[in-house]
């Protein structure tokens, strides 16, 4: 017998507790929610529901309420057939970063407006540092599309160019370079062709 995925397991538990397939948006009340949680916990403990890794019963018991809440909001069969939209998109950005976690905690306990502004500035700076850098490996692009790569990428990967505008800077010379792209000037096709011609 194959295991059920977590989404379908939550749906099945909700249907079981409510006595059938729900019509419209599901709102579980106290005892209903408790019964759904228990059914999903039992499913995990008996190996009927997919779960990566070997987890303790205590971990599973703490995991299940968030799992159920997640699928009640996101599964169209349970949320009245509506597209889920996150209330605060990006609010979990940097959640694993200790510095950011501590900066946010400091902001939460500091009432001084001047200090809050400085702390928020540090948070914004740290968020910018954590953003993934654009990475394009020219070697993994079809030959006919390589001409569209920004000049900074060509330069970072040692593709011969006659000139690189000073406002575009190289941050790495690896084959799959991570580059920061400054505001690039609009280049005509002739200028781009001239820049990428071998000397």
Describe this structure as you would to a colleague:
- The chain has 199 residues and is mainly α.
- It folds into three domains: 69 residues, no CATH class; 33 residues, no CATH class; 62 residues, no CATH class.
- Helices cover 46% and strands 2% of the residues.
- The protein is built from seven helices and two strands; from the N terminus they run αααααβαβα.
- A two-stranded antiparallel ribbon has the order 1-2.
- Helix 1 crosses helix 2, helix 1 crosses helix 3 and helix 2 crosses helix 3.
- The termini are far apart.
- About 13% of the residues have low confidence.
Task: Set down the secondary structure blueprint.
Elements: H1 6-18, H2 30-45, H3 57-74, H4 98-109, H5 113-130, E1 134-135, H6 151-156, E2 178-179, H7 189-196
Antiparallel strand pairs: 1-2
Helix pairs in contact: 1-2, 1-3, 2-3, 4-5
Summarize the amount of helix as a percent range. Answer: 40-55%
Tally of helical runs: 7
Task: Walk across the major sheet and give the strand order.
Answer: 1-2
Number of DSSP strand runs: 2
How far from one another are the termini? 65 Å
Mean pLDDT: 78
Radius of gyration: 26 Å
Instruction: Sketch the major β-sheet.
Output: 2 strands, antiparallel
**Which structural class matches the secondary elements?**
mainly alpha
* Uncertain regions spanning at least 5 consecutive residues: 160-185
Strand composition percent: under 5%
